[in-house]
Design goal:
The structure is a single chain. By secondary structure, the protein is mainly beta. It has two domains: about 45 residues, no CATH class; about 80 residues, no CATH class. It is about 10% helix and about 40% strand. It has a five-stranded mixed barrel. The chain has a three-stranded antiparallel sheet with strand order 2-1-3. Strand 7 and strand 8 form a beta hairpin. The radius of gyration is 16 Å and the shape is globular. The chain starts with a helix and ends with a strand.
Length: about 140
């Protein structure tokens, strides 16, 4: 399994995990070898994309490409850990929340996968994000 494949699935608006053919465990981000049983017999498994916020933070100083999108100390964005319906957790950008009022965000808020195209860079890519279902 290649990480480039995971990114290719994101570009197709698909959230995929690796699945061990031997013990059936799933992993996101994907892994080439199962850390449970050490099998290298891995396949792709599409996830629902539904979940809830498990943890979050407001980012005031981000990477260069996020600054180029207009994010700054005055215009922060949020990212966090999302616990998916399948029980897996992944780090991603959070959309539909007010980053200037993080006290209004609650752990457990339902979210759905979203895919953000980043075109202002030399090599455009799709960024994994989750959008609040309460906004």
């Amino acid at each position: 399994m290649k990480r480039a494949s995971f990114n290719a699935y994101l570009a197709e608006n698909r959230l995929m995990a690796s699945r061990c053919e031997k013990c059936e465990a799933k992993f996101i981000p994907p892994r080439a070898v199962c850390p449970n049983c050490f099998s290298d017999q891995m396949s792709w498994s599409e996830l629902s994309g539904s979940g809830k916020v498990a943890a979050f933070t407001t980012v005031y100083i981000g990477p260069t490409f996020m600054n180029a999108l207009g994010y700054s100390k005055e215009n922060p964005y949020m990212c966090g850990i999302v616990e998916l319906e399948e029980g897996l957790r992944i780090s991603a950008r959070l959309l539909g929340f007010n980053a200037l009022e993080p006290e209004t965000v609650e752990v457990g808020t339902p979210v759905k996968v979203d895919f953000v195209r980043v075109n202002n860079v030399e090599h455009p890519f799709t960024q994994l994000a989750f959008r609040s279902l309460q906004s």
